[in-house]
Amino acid sequence: MIVAFSVTPLGVGEDVGEYVADAVRVVRESGLPNRTDAMFTSVEGEWDEVMDVVRRAVAAVERRAPRVSLVLKADIRPGVTDGLTSKVETVERHIAE
Fold it and tell me: Which Gene3D superfamilies does the UniProt entry name for this protein (predicted)?
Protein backbone atom coordinates (compact mmCIF):
# COMPACT_ATOMS: atom_id res chain seq x y z
CA MET A 1 0.00 0.00 0.00
CA ILE A 2 1.02 3.58 -0.57
CA VAL A 3 -0.14 6.29 1.81
CA ALA A 4 0.25 9.96 0.95
CA PHE A 5 -0.21 12.14 3.98
CA SER A 6 0.24 15.66 5.20
CA VAL A 7 0.66 16.64 8.84
CA THR A 8 0.08 20.31 9.61
CA PRO A 9 0.60 21.90 13.00
CA LEU A 10 -2.06 24.44 13.90
CA GLY A 11 -1.69 27.35 16.26
CA VAL A 12 2.05 27.81 15.68
CA GLY A 13 2.06 30.56 13.04
CA GLU A 14 2.75 30.44 9.33
CA ASP A 15 6.29 29.04 9.37
CA VAL A 16 5.70 25.32 9.95
CA GLY A 17 8.77 23.83 8.23
CA GLU A 18 10.53 22.80 11.43
CA TYR A 19 7.40 20.96 12.65
CA VAL A 20 6.92 19.22 9.31
CA ALA A 21 10.60 18.24 9.40
CA ASP A 22 9.92 16.37 12.66
CA ALA A 23 7.27 14.28 10.86
CA VAL A 24 9.40 13.67 7.78
CA ARG A 25 12.32 12.61 9.97
CA VAL A 26 10.13 9.87 11.48
CA VAL A 27 9.21 8.64 7.99
CA ARG A 28 12.79 8.60 6.74
CA GLU A 29 14.05 6.82 9.84
CA SER A 30 11.37 4.12 9.39
CA GLY A 31 13.33 2.50 6.58
CA LEU A 32 10.19 2.22 4.42
CA PRO A 33 10.30 3.53 0.86
CA ASN A 34 9.18 7.17 0.95
CA ARG A 35 9.11 10.39 -0.99
CA THR A 36 8.41 13.95 0.16
CA ASP A 37 7.25 16.82 -2.02
CA ALA A 38 5.85 20.28 -1.32
CA MET A 39 2.42 19.00 -0.31
CA PHE A 40 2.63 15.37 0.87
CA THR A 41 4.91 12.65 2.09
CA SER A 42 4.26 9.23 0.59
CA VAL A 43 5.29 6.02 2.28
CA GLU A 44 4.97 2.44 1.01
CA GLY A 45 4.66 -0.82 2.92
CA GLU A 46 2.21 -3.11 4.65
CA TRP A 47 -0.89 -1.67 6.34
CA ASP A 48 0.29 -1.95 9.95
CA GLU A 49 3.80 -0.65 9.34
CA VAL A 50 2.65 2.30 7.22
CA MET A 51 -0.06 3.31 9.68
CA ASP A 52 2.41 3.05 12.55
CA VAL A 53 4.75 5.45 10.74
CA VAL A 54 1.89 7.89 10.12
CA ARG A 55 0.85 7.68 13.79
CA ARG A 56 4.41 8.33 14.95
CA ALA A 57 4.84 11.22 12.49
CA VAL A 58 1.68 12.85 13.83
CA ALA A 59 2.88 12.29 17.41
CA ALA A 60 6.19 14.00 16.60
CA VAL A 61 4.34 17.15 15.50
CA GLU A 62 1.82 16.85 18.31
CA ARG A 63 4.61 17.05 20.90
CA ARG A 64 5.25 20.69 19.94
CA ALA A 65 1.97 21.94 18.48
CA PRO A 66 -1.30 22.51 20.32
CA ARG A 67 -3.34 21.08 17.43
CA VAL A 68 -2.54 18.90 14.41
CA SER A 69 -4.33 18.39 11.10
CA LEU A 70 -3.84 15.14 9.17
CA VAL A 71 -4.79 14.58 5.52
CA LEU A 72 -4.34 11.00 4.31
CA LYS A 73 -4.92 9.20 1.03
CA ALA A 74 -4.23 5.48 0.59
CA ASP A 75 -3.77 3.25 -2.46
CA ILE A 76 -4.44 -0.28 -1.24
CA ARG A 77 -3.36 -2.87 -3.84
CA PRO A 78 -2.32 -6.22 -2.38
CA GLY A 79 0.62 -7.81 -4.13
CA VAL A 80 2.01 -4.57 -5.58
CA THR A 81 5.47 -3.51 -4.48
CA ASP A 82 7.69 -0.62 -5.54
CA GLY A 83 4.61 1.41 -6.45
CA LEU A 84 6.29 4.69 -5.52
CA THR A 85 8.73 4.21 -8.36
CA SER A 86 6.74 2.19 -10.89
CA LYS A 87 3.70 4.50 -10.92
CA VAL A 88 5.88 7.52 -11.70
CA GLU A 89 7.86 5.59 -14.32
CA THR A 90 4.62 4.64 -16.08
CA VAL A 91 3.50 8.27 -16.27
CA GLU A 92 6.94 9.39 -17.48
CA ARG A 93 6.89 6.72 -20.17
CA HIS A 94 3.53 7.98 -21.45
CA ILE A 95 4.78 11.56 -21.48
CA ALA A 96 7.80 10.57 -23.52
CA GLU A 97 5.69 8.82 -26.18
Answer: 3.30.70.930
